[in-house]
Specification:
Strand content: 25-35%
Oligomer: single chain
Keywords: Membrane, Transmembrane, Transmembrane helix
Low-confidence stretches: none
Distance between the termini: 38 Å
Helix content: 25-40%
Mean pLDDT: 91
Number of strands: 6
Largest sheet: 6 strands, antiparallel
Radius of gyration: 15 Å
InterPro entries: DUF4528
Structural class: alpha+beta
Order of helices and strands: HHEEEEHHEE
Number of domains: 1
Pfam families: DUF4528
Transmembrane segments: 97-121
């Protein structure tokens, strides 16, 4: 609901927004590309995607039979995704709790994290989102090595 109230109207204001790949499709493509790692943690630029997970902080994300717990933080100019492969669980309490914390602290720590990330990112990896066939760059603090 929040997505349709807040993000969808952005499509009419920002040129080309509607043609960007969905953040969830990029996440699925990356997890599949990495052959479903046990965890991953990356940043993605707001300007590269449609943020269809807007307002969600902690949620389940399933892709090809693998479930991930996703901790998502908006930290302009990026969105940070931390994903751990785990069985499905009810994360609604944690999701509401993290939203409350973000609102209570006015998002200031998130903004500072985004600014710091600009200087701390050391690795990049591209993923091709299968629906739009667009190449999207993911940004990492360190290079991830998965078995």
């Amino acid at each position: 609901m929040l997505y349709s109230l807040v993000v969808k109207p952005i499509r009419t204001v920002i040129p080309g927004y509607g043609s960007r790949p969905l953040a969830s499709d990029v996440l699925a493509a990356y997890l599949e590309k990495r052959q479903f790692p046990s965890w991953t943690s990356y940043f993605i630029r707001y300007r590269d995607i449609q943020d269809n997970d807007y307002g969600r902080k902690h949620f389940n994300f399933s892709v090809k039979g693998h479930n991930y717990h996703v901790l998502r933080v908006g930290c302009y100019p990026y969105i940070k995704y931390h994903c751990t492969r785990r069985p499905y669980a009810d994360l609604s309490f944690e999701d509401r709790f993290f939203r409350l914390i973000t609102v209570a602290n006015l998002g200031i720590p998130c903004a500072l994290y985004g600014l710091a990330a600009i200087f701390l990112i050391r690795h990049r990896d591209d993923v091709v989102e299968p629906t739009t066939r667009q190449r999207v760059t993911l940004h990492f603090l360190i290079e991830e090595v998965h078995n």
